[in-house]
Design goal:
With about 400 residues, this protein is an alpha+beta fold. The chain starts with a helix and ends with a strand.
């Protein structure tokens, strides 16, 4: 029974009873060549296509499930085999094998068709080119917004850093001001324990002597009263200068456009009587300069420097004061020169300290606060000063006004 079925199966593949496909075409060379070449090209293409699909699946397994990709590859390759068998049947009538191959291809085709429909929902969910472009545009806009937000954050950060720097500078300035005030307080305390007590001690002592002298009606009463009067004046001037020096720490500069010529004129008018009593000679050669400065500070500077020039010129000399202006690399120089007693140049920096008197034994009554007031006022204005002097040969104070504070500079 088994052998009979095997014989029938083998007879199914026998080709003796069939004619080659070429007979149907009467062995026309052109027609056979057309079919043969076409089948070979189709078979080659059907072989290359699944190879490409397999390559893509291996490199990008996320695109299509591997089992479906493999099924499509088998289907395409099976279709290609049918064309290869068709090429063979042109000369060899293997129709039975061709039929079995087609049957197998039909099974694979059906499975592939079913699989393609199961893949359809997932395929439809894939974004289209338009959708991808829209998403890319949305991502680009989002990126631009993030960049804009980042730029705004950077700007805010810069502003915060600037505010922190400004606030830090303000705190430093306040700390410097407090330190300066503490220094001033220390100087005032030193002064209160020494300089101010000395004239007050004389006032007390000579007032007691005057009381006793008045009781005895002694001849020295007038001298005692004059000493008391001079000590009281000195104490009053000391207190007045200390107050001026202290007030500068609290002074808020109010900037105006000032004429240096007019300010110099006002300062000289303040000391007009003293200059006239000394029969002094004052030479003024000043440019018609207007500067941006605080009038109170400028007035204190000029009045104290002119007062020093008068005070420290010996009475046996003819008072000569020169006030000139001249251009410099930094801006404008304002120079006050006298022919007074001068001082040792080694003390050029010390003279601007409060309560400093370098010539206490020359009959000059001073508080030691005038140049300290000048130095503090100059610092607030942003001006600088240098001193040129020699002992008994006069003094020259050279003030430099920055160029950016000069409004007008016209020679008369």
């Amino acid at each position: 029974m088994g052998e009979g079925m095997l014989e029938k199966f083998l007879q199914y593949f026998e080709t003796n009873s069939f004619l080659a496909h070429g007979y149907c075409m009467t062995w026309r060379t052109d027609l056979i060549a057309l079919h043969a070449i076409s089948d070979l090209v189709i078979f080659s293409s059907y072989f290359i296509i699944p190879t490409a699909i397999l390559y893509i699946t291996i490199r990008r397994p996320d695109l299509v499930p591997s089992r479906i990709a493999l099924l499509f590859c088998v289907f395409i390759f099976a279709c290609g085999m049918t064309h290869l068998v068709g090429f063979i049947t042109l000369w060899e009538p293997v129709y039975s094998f061709e039929g079995v191959l087609k049957a197998a291809t039909a099974v694979v085709s059906g499975a592939t068709a079913v699989a393609s429909w199961t893949l359809m929902p997932s395929a439809l969910k894939l974004p289209s080119t338009v959708m991808l472009e829209q998403k890319n545009d949305a991502l680009a806009r989002s990126g631009q917004e993030q960049q804009r937000a980042y730029a705004e954050l950077e700007q805010i950060k810069s502003e915060l850093e600037l505010r922190i720097q400004q606030r830090t500078q303000e705190l430093r300035d306040k700390a410097d001001a407090l330190e300066q005030m503490n220094t001033s307080l220390s100087q005032y305390a030193h002064f209160a324990s020494h300089d101010l007590q000395e004239p007050l001690r004389k006032i007390v002592s000579f007032s007691e002597l005057a009381i006793e002298e008045d009781t005895a009606r002694g001849p020295d009463l007038k001298m005692f009263l004059e000493t008391i009067n001079e000590s009281a004046k000195r104490a009053r001037n000391l207190v007045r200068n200390i107050l001026q020096h202290a007030e500068l720490d609290q002074h808020t500069a109010v900037i105006h456009q000032l004429s240096l010529k007019e300010e110099t004129k006002h300062a000289l008018e303040t000391h007009e009587l003293s200059i006239r009593d000394r029969k002094g000679e004052v030479k003024v050669d000043i440019h018609d300069i207007r500067v941006r400065a605080d009038p109170t500070l400028v007035s204190q500077i000029l009045e104290n420097l002119i007062s020093n020039a008068i005070k420290y010129t010996p009475v046996d000399r003819t008072l000569r004061v020169s006030i000139i202006t001249q251009l410099s690399d930094e801006g404008m120089e304002y120079v006050i020169t006298d022919n007074g007693i001068g001082f040792d140049p080694v003390f050029k920096e010390k003279i601007f300290e409060p309560f400093t008197r370098l010539n206490p034994g020359n009959g000059v009554i001073g508080t030691g606060m005038g140049l300290a007031i000048v130095a503090k006022a100059l610092k607030q204005l942003g001006w600088s000063i240098v001193v040129e002097t020699a002992h008994m040969q006069g003094t020259s104070f050279r003030i430099t006004i920055p160029a950016d504070q000069i409004v007008q500079d016209e020679q008369e």
